[in-house]
Amino acid sequence: MPVAFDWSAVITALLLVPVAYATTNVDNLLIMASLGAGPASRRNVILGFLAASAAVLTIISLASFIEDLVPARLLGYLGFVPISIGVYLLFSKTASAGDETSTVTTWPAISLLLFANSGDTVFALGPLFAESSDAARIGLATGFTLIAGLWLLLILTVSSKIAESESLSRLGHWLAPWMMIIVGLYILSDSTTDLV
Question: Whole-model pTM?
């Protein structure tokens, strides 16, 4: 006799994922809005966000296998990624004020920055994927995809509003590198307490 599909698990997952995603991605919203209003092109923000989201979804889907392969304490070293990008933006800003083609704002660099800052999302949703039924995993993946799409729209809306205001745009240019450095330091310092 075939097993009935568990719709309640799917619906629960669809409701749970947006809350977990939103609470762990407020910092990414601020960073991406600053980048989108500042040194990064809209295209690079979109591609970087989509690539990082696909990588995070893949990792949380495979969480039960990955935690056996990669020691969690090593993931904290991803904090060096946003720190190095932030420092580079600070120095490149003084060296070449009008250079929009900086390698730091390409979509792979943006993707790596977001991925490095998504440890909290992985650790919030990874265990949920690992201990869920197949039906619930469908709901989790669907919920993740939907909320990520809405988050990208929010990022683009906020960054365009910031870019329309000259003073907010200057603030976005100034804030982006500092926010990356702070996020990187947080990832480095917090990983030892979260993962030990």
Answer: 0.69
